[in-house]
Amino acid sequence: MISSQTNERRWSERYTSQLRVDVYQKQIRITSAVLCNIGLGGLFIQSDSVLQNLDCGQALKLCISHPANTQNDCESALFPATIIRQEKAGTGLVFSDVDVCLFQSLRELLRVV
Predict the structure, then answer these.
(1) Is residue 8 classed exposed, middle or buried when 0-12, 13-18 and 19+ CB atoms within 10 A define those classes?
(2) pTM for this one?
(3) Residue 4 pLDDT
(4) By the number of CB atoms within 10 A of the CB, which of 15, 75, 76, 96 ranks highest?
(5) All domains of the chain in start order, with CATH
(6) All residues at 6 or more sequence positions from 81 whose CB lies less than 8 Å from its CB, including other chains
């Protein structure tokens, strides 16, 4: 079920979801996590100790699994993101290096979340 959240500091609507997120660092998958919420600007994921030990500012790449993609899609559609917040409940990330293709991919993803 999709529900939206509002927060005055965000420029885009956030959607709750529980999709799987594979987290990559330097082209190596370091962990998997569960998506809590996502918007065009970033996302919040339930994180494990691997992510909790990374510092804010750390650059990562994310593959967000959804019914319309396959493993090959993940390899070609990694979303660059930077850790901006660490909490006990999870990790907040902002999408980085957003170009037109990435923005369109995010919009398509939000349609199926």
Answers:
(1) exposed
(2) 0.80
(3) 44
(4) 15
(5) 4-112 (2.40.10.220)
(6) 42, 43, 59, 60, 61, 62, 93, 94, 95, 96
